[in-house]
Amino acid sequence: MKVALFATCIADSMFPQAPQATMRLLERLGITVDFPQSQACCGQMHINTGYYPEAMPLIKNHVDTFSPVLDGEWDAIVVPSGSCTGSIRHQQEMVAKAEGFDGLARTAAEIASKTYELSEFLVDVLGKTDVGAYFPHRVTYHPTCHSLRVARVGDRPYQLLREVQGIDLVDLPEAESCCGFGGTFSLKNAETSASMLADKMTNIKSTGAEVLVAGDYSCLMHIAGGLARNRAGVRAMHLAEVLAGTQDQPWVAPSTTVKAGV
Question: What is the pLDDT of residues 32-45, one digit of tens each?
Fold first, then answer.
């Protein structure tokens, strides 16, 4: 099987360990992974703030970059982000239609139908929950809002984490509550965002976890910044990083901890 990796702009530019871990994991499972060099932002930030015309060049670039999947060059497109997967599925077609690009909208929808968030691809396409991972640490998992409510990944990340050798997986209280990031929400509503983050950090610390895991680096950046400022001693890692390592070959990234103030 051959797939294209859509790294997402935030991971590609700021947290490359997530796409690197995704590629290592998939290749270990026998998947050939391509990284199309022309990929960029999916346009979600522009769309969420109402800048539809400004989002159109990004949507067109995404469609042009990943359209080979429709000709069979790849079997699927894999995305290590529930948020960006949700945007590709539900926003690109809608915005292209709203801006009068019906043909582009149809192609965007076809590409979206072949696009999978990482845990979806592993569980639904490959039929795997045990990927041979080893991670001997106490871990709690934060299901990000968009992964739950837009991409609808459900409990697939939990299914994968439960099968990791050596892991001590602890349930996060009020796990489905928002961390307060929400893209520009955290800037426009800073006090509310900070209050939501404080509640999330309290729940994380109550688990005694060494590592907080999530499937979106935007939320991990937000939470990790708060944890670091409060000297909580909790690392923040992407799901792919936890799944990428084995007992014989532990995952070592340029930085496995999201730093505060990024």
Answer: 999 999 999 999 98
Residue 123, both tokens? 């569980």
Q: Can you give the pTM of this predicted structure?
A: 0.91
What is the rounded CA–CA span in Å between residue 187 and residue 189? Answer: 6
Give the chain's domains with CATH numbers.
2-125 (no CATH), 138-244 (3.40.50)
Q: What is the pLDDT of residues 51-97, one digit of tens each?
A: 999 999 999 999 999 999 999 999 999 999 999 999 999 999 999 99
pLDDT at position 37 is 96
Residue-wise over 167-204: b if at least 16 C-beta within 10 A, else e? bbbeebeeeeebbbbbbeebeeeeeebeebbeebbebb
